[in-house]
Specification:
The structure holds two protein chains of two kinds. Chain A has helices spanning 2-21, 41-55, 66-75, 89-97, 127-135, 161-171, 187-196, 225-229, 249-255, 261-269; strands at 31-36, 58-61, 80-83, 102-116, 124-125, 152-156, 182-184, 200-205, 214-215, 217-218, 236-244. Chain A is built from ten helices and eleven strands. Chain A is α/β, with parallel strands linked by helices. The longest helix of chain A has 20 residues, at 2-21. Chain A is 38% helix and 21% strand. In chain A, strand 1, helix 2 and strand 2 form a beta-alpha-beta unit. Chain A is globular. By secondary structure, chain B is an all-alpha fold. In chain B, strands 1-2 form a two-stranded antiparallel sheet. A two-stranded antiparallel ribbon of chain B has the order 3-4. The chains are: A alpha/beta, B mainly alpha.
Chain lengths: 275, 387
């Protein structure tokens, strides 16, 4: 049994080596497994579809949150971890302890749009107003120029990179998010809740904004590809793909997609920003 | 298992089995019994194993942080450095939605079971029961999707009128019944024989007016309520009650069926009406089975995860005021599901173990309620059998 397995592995290895050597040719030998952020998910999925079509390499994409992505790469269950935040020191230490050396690749930039229901007449908030709303200091829309209605605050679950980004870019350490804030499990669920709840406020990746919700101007700047790229929009972040060590072969080819014109077109079509 | 048949110490020659065959049969019997015992104990051992492994991962949490914070604080910030792990609001949220769903599902379930077993004709029941049981076949994520996408916006846009109509539909028949009964009782008590009818009519119209007034005032109060967030304890309670219903109806109906014709016919023979037979004979006789049905249903609601995760709002605070079902809550099950992703042993061990502490708490609660229901069932059976 063991010998058979070993033989099988050797054949696979050989095939992989051949596949890498004959780079450029379509080869079905490699397989890429990706896990992590629901924000990076759309990029990963459209890259995957394009990559499978052009090279024949099978790519699987799971979306379980940035924290799970980090966990997967540390445990060696994926080739690429998609993350919408940088790895934490603790995670890097855990990776080192398991003999994994995570290498980060910035594939795109993303703005975090603060969204409200389209029926809400508020169009702009300052960063400190958003902070006061989420920390529970401001509880009524009338305090920020809106209708007299109690604010329904919607945040993400704790495994979300979007949540981490929001906390570090808007809230800061000394302002915890109010206990009254509701939590949803994905960008899509937040968007759904905001689009159906007149008094709701939420935050989602720029790529998820559509006409069902209204993005607010933050510090007078509208979230868009230009304002994220030139750095004037205050809530923006890089999106990462992590690999174990410098990538080689198909994994490198895959990650380098973001530098090709096709990759850049896909990123901007999805509503994200090229770096 | 053909045992040899003895009659007065004499062997009947027709049933003689050779010693060898007898040995084989005994062996087969032992083997079969051992196999069944093995399977049964395997199931029991699985339960014990789950208990054991959850406890093994839960205890480190209490060693690290003690009991006080977990049970008395409402600060739930597991992702912070250092984290806060106060689960009081979460435990309260679980209790709240479980209680709410029981409040809706138990009367409805028992009423439906009584209707199925004693009121509907057999031909209707044949179709009605499987339809109710179909509810149990709907996946919980579908219920959750319905709660999040349809019920929550509906509660937000039309919450007040919905509550008003529900109140009217539920309260009107009861009030009507109360008015008639109260008027009859009072007139029988205080009026003379000849003008009893007149008195009853007068009282009926008086009480009727009062009832309409109550219906109207409470109705307008409810109508004026504006539901700010549709993902709240009420939404989840409604959906969970639907999920608990098939269990309650099905088990309770079986219990009512098992009461049997003899008791019912005995009751009728003594001159009892159908209502008296139901309330005073059938329901008490089936009470242990009904209780088991109720507890099973409540356990279903307590343990449900997907619906509460999607539609309870997941905000870990005790509603304000404490009985406010229109506020978002967070439950134990949803917290375990929602925080498991981030909580790895490598990234903060308190955060990992606290989820097991919650799991252990859920296990202990269901263990105890099962134990209590078991005790009640045994006791009830003893009382009914006259011991």
């Amino acid at each position: 049994m063991y010998i058979k397995m070993k033989l099988f592995r050797n054949i696979l290895l050989g095939a992989a080596v051949l596949g890498v050597m004959s780079a450029g040719e379509a080869s079905a030998a490699g397989k890429i497994v990706m896990d992590g952020s629901t924000t990076v998910g759309p990029i990963a999925k459209s890259f995957a579809a394009y990559f499978t079509k052009t090279t024949g390499t099978e790519v699987t994409v799971s979306e379980s949150g940035s924290g799970n992505g980090a966990k997967s790469i540390i445990n060696g269950t994926c080739d690429i971890a998609n993350m919408s935040r940088g790895m934490k020191d603790k995670e890097v230490a855990a990776a080192k302890a398991k003999g994994v050396s995570p290498v980060e690749h910035i594939v795109a930039l993303d703005g975090l749009a603060v969204v409200v229901n389209p029926g809400n007449r508020v169009t702009a908030l300052s960063k400190s107003q958003i902070r006061d709303i989420y920390s529970g200091k401001i509880t009524n829309w009338s305090k920020v120029g809106g209708p007299n209605a109690q604010i329904v605050k919607i945040q993400r679950e704790s495994n979300s990179g979007t949540q981490d980004t929001f906390k570090s870019l808007v809230m800061g350490k000394q302002y915890p998010i109010s206990k009254r804030a509701e939590s949803q499990a994905s960008n899509g669920a937040v968007k759904n809740r905001v689009s159906t709840t007149p008094a709701a406020i939420g935050f989602i990746g720029l790529g998820f904004v559509d006409s069902s919700v209204k993005p607010l101007l933050v510090e007078g700047v509208a979230p868009s590809a230009e304002t994220v790229k030139n750095g004037t929009y205050p809530i923006s972040r890089p999106l990462f793909m992590y690999t174990n060590g410098q990538p080689t072969g198909v994994v490198k080819q895959f990650i380098d997609l973001n530098k090709t014109s096709n990759g850049m077109r896909m990123i901007s079509e999805l509503g994200f920003v090229n770096k | 298992m053909t045992e040899e048949v003895k009659t007065d110490g004499q062997r009947s020659s027709a049933f003689v089995v050779s010693p060898q065959k007898r040995k084989m049969q005994k062996l087969a019997k032992n083997a079969g019994e051992t196999l069944l015992l093995g399977i049964a104990s395997f199931v029991a051992i699985i339960v014990l194993f789950i208990f054991f492994f959850v406890a093994v991962d839960a205890i480190p949490y209490f060693q690290l942080r003690g009991f006080t914070e977990f049970f008395t604080s409402t600060g739930w910030y597991p992702a912070d450095e250092p984290g806060e792990f106060g689960a009081l609001a979460i435990i309260y949220g679980s209790a709240m939605v479980t209680f709410g769903s029981a409040l809706l599902a138990v009367p409805m379930g028992i009423a439906a079971a009584v209707c199925l077993s004693d009121i509907l004709p057999f031909s209707v029941r044949q179709y009605a029961k499987p339809v109710i049981e179909m509810l149990a076949a709907i996946p919980s994520v579908a219920f959750g999707f319905f709660a999040l996408v349809i019920l929550a916006p509906l509660l937000q846009s039309n919450g007040g009128p919905l509550l008003m109509w529900t109140w009217w539909i539920l309260a009107a028949p009861f009030l009507l019944l109360a008015v008639i009964v109260a008027a009859d009782l009072l007139s029988a008590r205080f009026a003379q024989e000849e003008n009893r009818k007149k008195m009853a009519l007068l009282l009926q119209s008086l009480f009727g007016l009062l009832a309409v007034l109550v219906l109207y005032v409470v109705g307008t109060k409810l109508n004026a309520i504006e539901i700010i967030t549709g993902t709240n304890a009420l939404n989840v309670s409604i959906i969970l009650s639907f999920m608990a219903l098939p269990t309650i109806v099905s088990v309770a109906e079986d219990a009512l069926q098992s009461v049997g014709r003899e008791l019912r016919e005995g009751s009728y023979a003594l001159g009892a009406t159908r209502a008296e037979t139901l309330l005073k004979t059938v329901l008490p006789a089936a009470s242990s089975g009904i209780l088991a049905a109720v507890i099973l249903g409540i356990m279903r609601a307590l343990g449900e995860t997907m619906v509460v995760w999607m539609a309870s709002g997941n905000s870990s605070h005790i509603p304000d005021p404490w009985y406010n079902y229109l506020d978002a809550v967070r439950t134990l099950t949803a917290t375990i599901a929602g925080d498991m992703g981030e909580a790895d042993q490598v990234t903060g061990s308190e955060r990992y173990h606290v989820l097991f502490a919650m799991g252990l708490l859920l296990l202990v609660i269901s263990f105890f309620s099962n134990l209590v229901s078991e005790r009640i069932v045994v006791r009830q059976r003893k009382i009914l059998s006259g011991q």
